[in-house]
């Protein structure tokens, strides 16, 4: 029984640590999201069908896309320059903010 309890506690701690590393600060993301609003809408809902809605997207997906724009593996003449100056923390924060919106 002690072994099972120790395993449960270990898995719980690993899960919490993983979330803390992967998650961003939604409040900080909101403060940085002003530049995104022009295309993606103030609340992450785009008025133009050419630009995707960001509200409610999974944060890992949003980070992956921003990194792809930043490193050039995903190309877009507008998003590439927008993503270039973003740090990993900026991306995590923006993703946390937009994923928190519904």
Give a quick rundown of the structure.
The chain has 102 residues and is mainly α. The chain has helices at 2-22, 26-32, 34-40, 59-71, 79-83, 88-100.
Description:
With 102 residues, this protein is an all-alpha fold. It has a single domain, classed as Cytochrome Bc1 Complex, Chain D, domain 2 (Orthogonal Bundle), CATH 1.10.760. It is built from 6 helices and no strands. It has helices at 2-22, 26-32, 34-40, 59-71, 79-83, 88-100. Helix 2 (26-32) crosses helix 6. Residues 3-21 have low confidence and may be disordered.
* Average pLDDT number: 85
CATH architecture: Orthogonal Bundle
Strand content: under 5%
- Helical fraction: 55-70%
The main pleated sheet reads as:
none
Name of the CATH superfamily:
Cytochrome c-like domain
Count every helix, treating DSSP H or I runs of 4 or more residues as helices.
Answer: 6
Low-pLDDT parts are 3-21
DSSP, total strands: 0
Distance between the termini: 42 Å
Q: Give me the strand/helix succession.
A: HHHHHH
The CATH topology label is Cytochrome Bc1 Complex, Chain D, domain 2
